[in-house]
Amino acid sequence: MVQKAKILLVDDRPENLLALEAILSALDQTLVRASSGEEALKALLTDDFAVILLDVQMPGMDGFETAAHIKRRERTRDIPIIFLTAINHGPHHTFRGYAAGAVDYISKPFDPWVLRAKVSVFVELYMKNCQLREQASLLRLQLEGGRQSADEARESAGLLAELSARLAAVEEQAEALSKQLDETADAAAVATAAHLERKLTGLRRALDALEPGSGSAAG
């Protein structure tokens, strides 16, 4: 049974949180509320999240400061952050959002369909990463056990090849996206592609370590 991804919604206004829940409920994932930056940081201490929707303008710790804390933590630095703001202060304000580590910056009122589509991309990426890590972990345990039968060895080799093929397909899509960026130069797309490349590089290294003959796979 595949676990649902968790999406963190951070806004000091209850009506805004309610609206976000209504928009994202169709994704059928677990939506977690936080009414302040402090509350969001507390939630991030115990749970893993696929993506964070973070309001910029909040009393006390605002969105930028909250994002800075998130990016300083080893556990949470790679979680995608989508900033939401009611006021567009121009390019400088938007740039500050990207500089704080956001993968996207959306001004209110936003198109519900567009927001849902953006969030779904990060949820799908998170779920694929979780599946790959779980399968790789099971394969590593089999390889390190050193007591595989011929059938188990063939099954492990087949699983490793399947994981590598799946990852290669995602890498191809990422490469195509990077080529498109040369033409569009969209800041949000650039940030998203950079985040995706970091994730893929880590997964490829982990998968390569499982190849027969590699140092970590020796048993």
UniProtKB/TrEMBL annotation:
Modification 4-aspartylphosphate occurs at: 55
Pfam family, one: Response_reg
Protein name listed in UniProt: Response regulator
Taxonomic superkingdom: Bacteria
Record's keyword terms, sorted: Coiled coil, Phosphoprotein
Response regulatory domain sequence ranges: 6-123
Transmembrane parts of this sequence: none
InterPro entries per UniProt: Bact_response_regulator, CheY-like_superfamily, Sig_transdc_resp-reg_receiver
Coiled coil feature spans: 160-187
Gene3D superfamilies in alphabetical order: 3.40.50.2300
